[in-house]
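Example 331, ligand NAI.
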Amino acid sequence: MRTAVFSARRYDRTMLAKANEAAGHELRFVEDRLSLETAALAEGCEAVCVFVNDNADAQVLALLAAQGTRLLATRSTGYNHIDTGAAARLGIAVVRVTDYSPYSVAEFAVGLLLAVNRKIARASARTRDGNFDLDGLMGIDLHGKTVGLIGTGKIGAIFARIMAGFGCTILGHDPFRNPAFEDAGGRYVTVDELLSCSDVVSLHCPLTEQTRHIVNAATLAKAKRGSILVNTSRGGLVDTEAAIEALKTGQLGGLAIDVYEQEANLFFQDLSSTIICDDVIQRLVSFPNVIVTGHQAFFTVEAIGQIMQTTIASITAFERGEPLANRVPEA
Ligand code: NAI
């Protein structure tokens, strides 16, 4: 099936082409993000493949539908960048990748937590500069501390199990109970109890209208003073300006994020030679107790391999008129 692949970086091209060897779909790689301006590049493609910062809103989808697109495959679990209601009205089926190494994200969240708590990135930068001083690098033991998870699905349950291995008490909040989270030693509590008791809060829920800015000035005020916030889920879960205010007062003791509200204009590209006009991210990276990575939690050999294989399998199933195992429910 002729497929336009947007936001195609070098690793997307090689890994998707490899997964496509047997299936033989005609892949048209486009480096740009999908938008109103670039949708025309998918002219004549029955399938369009996108990533998290592509724009698949109603207007863009209408353009794609008019050009003959009938399948939208996102190379991600989250699908908040797609207007699924509009897709359904336009007759475009939407598929995602529900199952790919949840370990990739959970392990990265642990890595971010360790990095921000023990100032690992700062220490490494210092030693490269011949500075072996320890001043400013003190962290806390995680053993014996309380870790609260908002969202206890696949990734949350694995993160909980790892943190239980550190000797932490694990609390969780989720509208649905997950036995795997409870098996890991997790206990369900209200959001308020979770915030007030946790030394570390880690976000593992999807971005929806209900969860947008789930971390805001009011919730940060209820958090344990000096707690660390980890976000590997979606930038929109956190009101970044409120987080900055809480960092300034010390209410928030550390922030480790792999995702950022305005990341669409920044992430997945090299801007090191340009003037970055986003003052919020510039302020964030100026804090010594903040670590920011560019949406790389999923980026392991295992996860990318599974993402590409599932995406190709979905396109093949659609072409053959078979049921779509990873279809996004219609809004
Ligand atoms: P999942 O669907 O297995 O778990 C999500 C959990 O969040 C569910 O248990 C759900 O009930 C819960 N939830 C929904 N609304 C909630 C609310 N208001 N409060 C508390 N919990 C709520 O999803 P999975 O695989 O664990 O992924 C979690 C998120 O991680 C994804 O939605 C995605 O945004 C993010 N992600 C980030 C990646 C990265 O590279 N940084 C890669 C993959 C996923």
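Summary: The chain has twelve helices and twelve strands.
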